[in-house]
Specification:
The protein is of the alpha+beta class. It has five helices and eleven strands, in the order H-E-E-E-E-E-E-E-E-H-H-H-H-E-E-E.
């Protein structure tokens, strides 16, 4: 009974909350009655109490994202496996938080598509070139900027000839590869 009274008291106090703190590494959006009102940066932010405004924040520091291993054929019909890692960051908080759902997953999906398209349009010698990862950055950015993000760096995490087979067993994914 006493715990319930404390919870009720805390909920009552939250109704009168008229400010929030946005951390140094974050940016946020304020929704007024469920609609976008403004973008806010780090620091103390005043809001209208009684649930009229809500604040949603996102980390804007660069962060890594590892794309799934892809087994693909090149333009000259050479089969290989490639796994890419990217370093990305949020550049448009409104687009990232409001205009999209599951934006990090969407970024991964879009970048994987760019890798796949580029790989299949290239020859084996082009893929093996040390600068190949750099050629992926511009097309990835064209895709993800619409989602409020930007790719800072593209790194080839793993690269080998052969094929990869993905086994799925009771929620566990196992990648099995073999050399051609």
């Amino acid at each position: 009974m006493f715990n319930r009274l404390i919870d009720l008291f805390i909920e009552f106090l939250e109704l009168f909350q008229c400010f929030v703190f946005v951390d140094e590494f974050e940016q946020g959006v304020i929704l007024r009655q469920g609609r976008f009102h403004r973008v806010v940066g780090p620091g103390l932010q005043w809001i209208i109490p009684f649930g009229q405004e809500d604040v949603y924040t996102v980390n804007v520091k660069p962060e890594p994202l590892y794309l799934d291993l892809q087994s693909l054929h090149t333009k000259d019909d050479y089969c290989g496996n490639i796994q890419i890692g990217i370093i990305w960051r949020v550049i448009d908080v409104k687009a990232f938080l409001i205009d999209n759902a599951d934006t990090p997953d969407m970024i991964g999906m879009l970048c994987s598509g760019v890798v796949s398209k580029s790989y299949m349009a290239s020859k084996w010698t082009q893929i093996r070139d040390p600068g190949y990862a750099d050629t992926l950055k511009a097309p990835m950015n064209r895709k993800v900027r619409k989602r409020g993000a930007e790719i800072d760096e593209v790194v080839i995490q793993d690269f080998a000839s052969g094929t990869a087979n993905r086994l799925w067993h009771e929620g566990i994914t196992i990648d099995v590869g073999h050399e051609d």
